[in-house]
Structure formats: structure tokens, C-alpha cells
Design a protein that fits this description.
By secondary structure, the chain is of the alpha/beta class. The chain folds into 2 domains: about 50 residues; about 220 residues, Rossmann fold, CATH 3.40.50.1820. Helix content is about 40%, strand content about 15%. It contains 9 helices and 8 strands. Strands 1-3-2-4-5-6-7-8 form an 8-stranded mixed β-sheet, sandwiched between helices. Strand 2, helix 4 and strand 3 form a beta-alpha-beta unit. The radius of gyration is 26 Å and the shape is globular. The N terminus and C terminus are likely disordered.
């Protein structure tokens, strides 16, 4: 080390100090860097914490659903093989087509309480179809859906219905449309987290034909993927960013003209009670003319700070 290294270093330090003093903005930036890093770290912790809480809720709810399935056989706890609720009419004259709701594996009519009440409050006629997760195939449930649609149209006097399906319910809707029984009878389809690309959980659970049909690459899903695009049907697919049951884009059907919406901050089951999802469904089913989001085939609904506590 040269003898002049010490003085040179002191001079450089003095120059740096003078530069910072003459540039208070630069001095603030240097001082603020640790603060920004701290805030970023806090944001990451909050995000990870919320994601962990959502995933914990989803896993717990899934475990509860799995535990209840055997009781449908020995105790009749769940719904009968298939049934349709009486028409639920809002307090105002309906201005939109009737809506038929199809729940997912292990769900019940009560799964739709939030969405059904919100639609009914706006004067929309709402039906729910319920079924047991055991003793049925996707094709059988699709046939039941076709019959339910025909009954709904007969009772309401409408020309078409709108269909909303959660998880397996969306696959049932797709099968009913692909089977040709709903030609000309459906206006809009909205699917929430439906496993068109399969669910990794379906391979881990042992319950019969329904779950086998939801495994990735199953013959059922391959047939639906290779089928023709539904003619005259507007199809909207909602995906949850924190969905661990149907992750990623597995919930998007293979049709070319599907509008995809991704909702931040919620999981697979949280879609059923999310205010953002409810608002989106209402907007889509009460809009006149083209799709409410026809400007883009892929959008994201971010989690607003005010909604974070109630989104799921």
C-alpha cells in the first residue's frame, strides 16, 4: 500500500460529503434507500402472510369436503342424486335471462348463497342444481343439467338461460353444451375455477368417476378440449390467483373465444364469496349487448386495499 493511500481516501470521502450537501435530493435518495427496502420487505411479508392464510383456509375446506363425502352415502347429509331448487325470484321484474347455478364437487345449494342472493336482489330469476358427489358421472350430470335448463325455460318463459358453474360444475356445463342438448338455449356461461386442464388433487382422492374425469389428461377432458367451439354462447372464465386446487390456467377452456379474468388475493373457494367476483358476474349477466369486458380477452382484477379484508 502506498503511503499516499490514506490522504487520497480522506480526500475522496470529503468530496463525496460535499457532493451530497450540494445535492439534497441525492442525499435524500441515499437515506431513503434503506426505508424503501424496509417497506418492500414488509409488503412481501404481508403478501406471503395473506397467501399462506388463503391456502390454509382452502386446504381446511377441502379436507372438510372430503370428510363429508362418505356421509352422503350412509346418512344422506348431502343432496340427493340430483335436484333443482324452486325458482328464486327477485323483488323487481327480471330484466335479464334466468340463471342456473351448478356447484362443484362436494358443494351444496348453500355454496351459492352469496351469489344467488346478489342476483335475486337485482330481479334475476335464479335456480340451483344440486347433486351427490358419488354415484354420478359427468355425462349423467350433464343430462340432468339439460333437463333442468328445459324446466327453467318452461317455468320462466325465457328463450335462453345463463349458466354459472364452480369447479366441477363448469365441466358439467361444458359437457352439456358439447353433447348438443343445449343448442340455442344458452346465452352466457361463466365458469369459476373449473378444471378444464385437470386438478392435481383429483389424482390424490379416491372418489369414483367424477374425480377420475378431473385428472389431467383424462379422456373426459381431452374430449371437451377437442370439441367444437360453442356457437352463439358467450363464455367467461374466472381464475383465482391463489387457487391451489385448480392452479394457473388450468381453469381456462380450450375455446378460442373465451374471456379470462384473474382475481388477485383469493383462492378456489373464495371465488364464491368474493365481492369482486360477485360484482363481475352481475355486470356480465345484466349487461345488454356485447360482453362487458369485450375490450380484452384477458384481464386481471387486482385486490383493492379496502376489499382485502372481505375478498375471501
Amino acid at each position: 500500500m502506498s503511503i499516499n493511500d490514506g490522504p487520497v481516501a480522506d480526500a475522496d470521502q470529503t468530496t463525496d460529503q460535499r457532493t451530497l450537501l450540494s445535492d439534497p435530493v441525492g442525499m435524500w435518495r441515499v437515506a431513503a434507500t434503506p426505508l424503501r427496502a424496509l417497506e418492500s420487505a414488509r409488503a412481501v411479508v404481508r403478501m406471503v402472510g395473506r397467501a399462506a392464510a388463503v391456502h390454509a383456509y382452502e386446504v381446511g375446506a377441502l379436507a372438510s369436503t372430503v370428510a363429508m363425502v362418505p356421509l352422503s352415502v350412509v346418512g344422506g347429509v348431502l343432496e340427493p342424486a340430483s335436484s333443482v331448487s324452486p325458482l328464486t325470484k327477485g323483488h323487481a321484474a327480471p330484466t335479464a335471462r334466468p340463471v342456473l347455478l351448478v356447484h362443484g364437487f362436494g358443494g351444496t345449494r348453500s355454496s351459492w348463497s352469496v351469489i344467488a342472493n346478489a342476483l335475486s336482489d337485482r330481479g334475476i330469476v335464479v335456480d340451483t342444481i344440486a347433486y351427490s358427489p358419488l354415484g354420478n358421472s359427468v355425462e349423467q350430470l350433464a343430462d340432468e343439467l339439460v333437463a333442468a335448463v328445459q324446466r327453467t325455460l318452461s317455468q320462466s318463459g325465457a328463450d335462453k338461460v345463463n349458466l354459472v358453474g364452480h369447479s366441477l360444475g363448469g365441466v358439467v356445463i361444458a359437457q352439456a353444451i358439447a353433447g348438443g342438448g343445449l343448442v340455442g338455449l344458452v346465452d352466457t356461461v361463466i365458469t369459476l375455477g373449473s378444471p378444464f386442464g385437470g386438478s392435481p388433487w383429483a389424482a390424490l382422492l379416491p372418489f369414483g368417476d367424477l374425480l377420475r374425469a378431473l385428472r389431467q389428461g383424462s379422456p373426459q377432458l381431452r374430449r371437451l378440449a377437442s370439441g367444437p367451439v360453442p356457437v352463439g354462447v358467450r363464455w367467461l372464465s374466472v381464475t383465482a390467483a391463489l387457487d391451489i386446487i385448480v392452479p394457473g390456467l388450468r381453469s381456462v377452456p380450450a375455446h378460442a373465444d373465451v374471456e379470462t379474468i384473474t382475481v388477485d388475493g383469493i383462492g378456489h373457494l373464495g371465488m364464491l364469496i368474493s365481492p369482486r367476483v360477485v360484482d363481475y358476474i352481475i355486470a356480465a349477466l345484466t349487461a345488454h349487448g356485447p360482453s362487458v369486458a369485450a375490450e380484452s380477452h384477458s384481464r386481471r382484477l387486482p385486490m383493492a386495499a379496502r376489499q382485502a379484508a372481505t375478498a375471501s
